[in-house]
Amino acid sequence: MSEILNALLQQEAILQFNRFDSEIAWRLGSWIVTKARKEELPIAVDITVSQRCLFHWSSNGAAIDNEVWIERKKRSVARFGHSSYYLGRQLAQLGQTPAERHYVDEANYAFHGGSFPIILRGTGVVGAITVSGLAQEEDHDLVVEALAWILRKRENVPQI
How far apart are CA 126 and CA 55, in angstroms? Predict the structure, then answer.
């Protein structure tokens, strides 16, 4: 397995919650919004747990396409249980398309960075936090930075 895939799996192993609720979603989403407004990032952000939207925001600079990307990215996380960036890098390493590897239509799934699983220790994946609007690596890094902040694990998370 490549170094980047290992780092992405380590991020998933470290960035896990003991509990996750609407209050945590609000704090997490608000942190991203504050950063996006300060840096004028043209993004949309979504936090969904058990198919229930707990937080959603779209900046003035975001495009309607960002909403479509969010749905496709978080659908990938829900189905395959890994970050959308990990899934895309895995496909690239294998030299396969989503249709070849997973028998899915890219109109419904996106294997590009920006959606990260919300993982509860002892339970598994319960939802996803998704950002769209930047380059895929930047979308992914923004989500990881926010998760590391709220979980107070900034020093422990491998960078990619």
Answer: 15
Element (H, E) at 67: helix 64-80
Q: Are 47 and 28 in contact (CB under 8 A)?
A: yes
Residue 1: pLDDT band with limits 50, 70, 90: low
Question: How does pLDDT run across 84-142, given as a tens digit for each residue?
Answer: 999 999 999 999 999 899 899 989 999 999 999 999 999 999 999 999 999 999 999 99
CA 40-28-55 angle, to 5 degrees, is: 85
DSSP state of 129: E
**Count of beta carbons in the 10 Å neighbourhood of residue 97:** 12
Cα dihedral 22, 112, 13, 145 sign: negative
- Domains identified in the chain and CATH numbers: 3-150 (3.30.450.150)
- The pTM of the full predicted model, rounded to 2 decimals, is 0.95
End-to-end CA distance of the chain: 15
Query: What distances in angstroms separate CA 22 from CA 52, 55, 104, one per listed residue?
Result: 10, 8, 31
CB burial class (10 A; 0-12, 13-18, 19+) of residue 100? Answer: exposed
User: For the segment 42-56, what is each residue's pLDDT rounded down to a tens digit?
Assistant: 999 999 999 999 999
